[in-house]
Structure to design on (799 residues):
């Protein structure tokens, strides 16, 4: 694994390191938070100081603790959504490619439908209908994101199968497990690209959902933190936005850029 | 016109040494060598765009300008037809549009008579003017590239393996066409059939092949 | 005209889907298992009343569907309890602003994005700063760009109005109305254009770089075809097929981008409606907006497919 890391371009190496650092913060968030993220006993609207690195918000939370907690939830949502979207999309693509015929048509046309309509609106509609729990947000994101993965995965799987026609025709006499085993080494790199891209999208979707007030209010992601900052009226008039709005925004942007660069195909940067 | 002394080209981890070459104006010179002996590399290095290799030489000038000083302005007087010109036509443009754009870019007027004459000499039916590349055969495309290249009135015309991938009749046609320009401009033709070159050119330069270890 | 049928099927599926799915989502007031609708939290009494009137969850499923279809045909999308207007009226009054923003912005973004993209693609080595800024912008959710611009330019620097499409009280026909509208439109439009350029730029750049490697582009240099013709007839004409695909996606996304920006700037388009619809659980309104967006997406796709067909005829 270390060998393949060394072969990446400089930008991708930096991105990977950043992402690992973020992951680290997410996993160890409990230890990195100076106070509990739910603790609202602090004096409100303090400016950044030694005991409150990013100050406090209008309810009494320590913003820095909220931010650290945000690492955990946001990254969790990103990874789970990305994982399931990729798995579902690729599995369905494999099923379509292997069985072909009616199954392929049905799945493909369904996917086409979802690709045509703007998915964020669908996600919003359905998340706002469901109970405001994290799991439903994730489900909504996955449900409307797998079609894009499916389309590309299907294309690539069909390509591989065409190229190695002899290999696969022989195997099709065998069952689908064998074909899958042969396919995996070719498909894995593409799947990891999907995964990274979908994590990327999930974060963006979640932030947009939070902006509209959709999602589990107890699980405070960066999106929710941003929303809270924007709701604070005085934000527009004093300099609070520097430590209230800016930190989660920066975390979000850096995370998304790191993911984008890691998944991009051209190395010219 | 072209003076090359002690040229070495480094490309793709291979070093190719070339013999000294002096080509005078309006000569028709052939360059012959077996496949892979560095003919195309030479042409690309001198006349191509974005050549990726490196050159080392005592002297290497085209029209008295050092090769390293040349930029795309060299195409003001040079027409370069690379190998496999079949792919050198824009799939979205008709033949006539190719002609018009070529003339426009070189500041020349559209003269239907001249075009018709050239096409006739290349055995190209006038109806092809409205055709798109996907409708043309390999031989037709080859001749059209030649036509465009001549159209811009070059002082130096370079052809890399014009004989590959076309039939004998087309080849003869091209040969006759080129012969008719003999003495009016400098022509360099690269091929791997000696017989063809012997019939058409004033003289032939032979490339031996590449030499990794030489000196 | 086979595609017409295909799209008709799509629309029908969307309608069916928008009927079925709310009833399948746990937590939704229409969820089959929930017998007592009022036990589902989040809905105020008014919302509940309007909801029941429109959806009639007490009726058997088939009758619900029949009523639903009937309503759609009559273009009756229910009544918004919050705005105290029929949903159809509400949308009719707003959709114009949204479409205005969407089309203007995507039009401008496409032109700039394609032009810059082709130029960068031909150059070969583009300034890292430019590409990095574009990637950063692309990584920022649109509403965030809108919020940041609003804070800095409207509130801090007070250069442009922060909300609305026109100053309250102004109306069409009054002198200075057009200027006022333009004044209010600058910021939302700017945000949209900025957020939409990067994906188009990056795509055009990559496509151009790929086409540039083709033999016939090199040949064009050898023939001394002039720069402008190269741009248009060699590069542009040859990237159009894939570019159309990408533009298709971007045009569809334009409406969602527009909606977000409207939500931030309180621009009187669908975005503002969406925001209140979600906050107040105004489901008929929510559903109608969804249907509008889906229809928009389908229409856009259809048009692009027609354009692509016309384009392919040549080859």
């Amino acid at each position: 694994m270390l060998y393949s890391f060394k072969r990446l371009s400089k930008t991708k190496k930096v991105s990977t390191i950043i992402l690992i650092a973020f992951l680290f913060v997410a996993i160890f968030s409990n230890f990195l938070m100076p106070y509990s993220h739910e603790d609202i006993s602090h004096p409100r609207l303090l400016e950044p100081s030694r005991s409150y690195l990013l100050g406090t918000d209008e309810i009494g939370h320590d913003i820095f603790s909220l931010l650290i907690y945000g690492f955990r939830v946001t990254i969790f949502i990103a990874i789970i959504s990305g994982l399931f979207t990729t798995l579902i999309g690729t599995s369905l693509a494999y099923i379509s490619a292997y069985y072909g015929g009616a199954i392929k048509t049905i799945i493909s046309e369904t996917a086409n439908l979802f690709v045509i309509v703007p998915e964020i609106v669908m996600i919003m509609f359905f998340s706002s209908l469901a109970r405001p729990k994290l799991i439903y947000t994730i489900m909504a994101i996955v449900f409307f994101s797998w079609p894009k993965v499916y389309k590309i995965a299907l294309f690539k799987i069909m390509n591989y199968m065409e190229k190695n026609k002899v290999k696969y025709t022989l195997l099709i006499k065998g069952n689908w497990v064998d074909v899958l085993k042969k396919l995996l080494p070719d498909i894995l790199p593409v799947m990891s690209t999907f995964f990274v891209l979908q994590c990327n999208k999930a974060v963006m979707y979640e932030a947009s959902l939070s902006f509209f007030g959709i999602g589990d209010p107890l699980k405070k992601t960066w999106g929710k933190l941003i929303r809270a900052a924007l709701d604070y009226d005085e934000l527009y008039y004093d300099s609070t936005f520097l430590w209230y709005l800016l930190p989660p925004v920066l975390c979000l942007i850096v995370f998304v850029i790191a993911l984008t660069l890691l998944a991009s195909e051209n190395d010219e940067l | 016109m072209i003076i090359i002394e002690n040229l070495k080209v480094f490309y793709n981890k291979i070093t190719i040494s070339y013999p000294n070459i002096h080509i005078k104006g309006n000569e028709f010179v052939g360059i012959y060598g077996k496949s892979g002996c560095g003919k195309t590399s030479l042409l690309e290095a001198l006349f191509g765009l974005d050549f990726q290799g490196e050159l080392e030489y005592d002297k290497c000038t085209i029209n008295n300008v050092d090769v390293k000083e040349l930029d795309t302005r060299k195409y003001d007087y040079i027409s370069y037809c690379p190998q496999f010109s079949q792919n050198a036509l824009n799939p979205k443009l008709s033949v006539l549009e190719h002609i018009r754009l070529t003339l426009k870019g070189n500041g020349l007027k559209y003269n239907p008579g001249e075009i018709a004459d050239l096409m006739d000499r290349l055995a190209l039916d006038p109806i092809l003017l409205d055709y798109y590349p996907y409708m043309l055969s390999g031989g037709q495309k080859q001749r059209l590239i030649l036509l465009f290249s001549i159209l811009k009135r070059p002082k130096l015309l370079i052809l890399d393996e014009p004989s590959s991938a076309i039939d004998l009749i087309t080849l003869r046609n091209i040969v006759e066409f080129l012969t008719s320009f003999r003495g009016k401009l400098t022509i360099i033709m690269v091929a791997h059939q000696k017989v063809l070159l012997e019939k058409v050119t004033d003289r032939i330069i032979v490339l031996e092949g590449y030499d990794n270890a030489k000196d | 005209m086979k595609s017409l049928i295909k799209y008709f099927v799509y629309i029908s599926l969307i309608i069916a889907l928008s009927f079925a799915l709310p009833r399948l989502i746990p937590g939704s007031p229409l969820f089959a298992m929930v017998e007592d609708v009022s036990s589902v939290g989040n809905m105020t009494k008014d919302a509940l009343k309007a909801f029941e009137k429109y959806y009639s969850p007490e009726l058997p499923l088939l009758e619900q569907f029949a009523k639903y279809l009937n309503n759609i045909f009559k273009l009756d999308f229910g009544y918004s309890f919050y705005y105290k207007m029929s949903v159809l009226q509400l949308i009719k009054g707003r959709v114009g602003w949204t479409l205005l923003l969407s089309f203007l912005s995507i039009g401008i973004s496409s032109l700039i994005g394609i032009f810059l993209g082709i130029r960068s693609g031909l150059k070969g080595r583009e300034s890292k700063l430019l590409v990095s800024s574009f990637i950063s912008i692309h990584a920022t959710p649109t509403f965030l760009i809108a919020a940041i611009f609003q804070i800095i330019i409207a509130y801090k620097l007070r250069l442009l109005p922060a909300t609305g499409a026109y100053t309250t009280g102004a109306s069409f026909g009054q002198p200075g109305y057009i200027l006022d509208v333009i004044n209010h439109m600058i910021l939302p439009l700017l945000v949209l254009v900025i957020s939409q350029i990067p994906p188009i730029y990056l795509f055009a750049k990559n496509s151009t770089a790929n086409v540039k490697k083709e033999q016939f582009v090199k040949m064009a240099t050898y023939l001394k075809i002039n720069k402008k013709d190269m741009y248009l007839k060699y590069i542009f004409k040859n990237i159009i097929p894939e570019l159309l695909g990408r533009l298709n996606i971007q045009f569809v996304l334009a409406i969602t981008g527009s909606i977000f920006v409207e939500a931030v700037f309180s621009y009187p388009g669908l975005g503002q409606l969406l925001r209140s619809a979600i906050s107040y659980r105004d489901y008929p309104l929510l559903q109608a907006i969804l249907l509008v967006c889906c229809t928009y997406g389908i229409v856009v796709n259809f048009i692009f497919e027609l354009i692509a067909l016309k384009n392919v005829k040549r080859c």
User: Anything to note?
Assistant: Strands of chain C lie at 79-80, 85-86.
